[in-house]
Design brief:
6 strands, alpha+beta, three-stranded antiparallel sheet
Length: 90
């Protein structure tokens, strides 16, 4: 599935995003294992909450971090997240 910037994104019900104290980072948990996330990836996935589309995720993160030009990186990561089934378009 390719990223449609206007579609609302939600975290997959088969996965769970949580802070893992032992690793001191956010992780994605799923039946087969765990994926450790860096801070930017976790910030992106937190906004895949069923209320944001890809464009609004970019806007919110650029505002939060007072930075521009994040669209390509965010869209790239969202494409990976969709391909891995971590998020879905709703």
């Amino acid at each position: 599935m390719s990223l449609d910037p206007g579609k609302i994104l939600a975290f997959s019900p088969l996965h769970r995003l949580q802070w893992e104290e032992a690793q001191q980072k956010h992780v994605i948990l799923y039946p087969e294992g765990m994926v450790e996330l860096n801070l930017p990836s976790a910030e992106i996935l937190k906004l895949c909450d069923g209320a944001h589309d890809a464009e609004s995720i970019v806007e919110e993160l650029e505002l939060k971090f007072n930075q521009t030009g994040l669209k390509d990186d965010i869209f790239g990561f969202l494409g990976v997240a969709l391909a891995n089934g971590w998020i879905r378009a709703v």
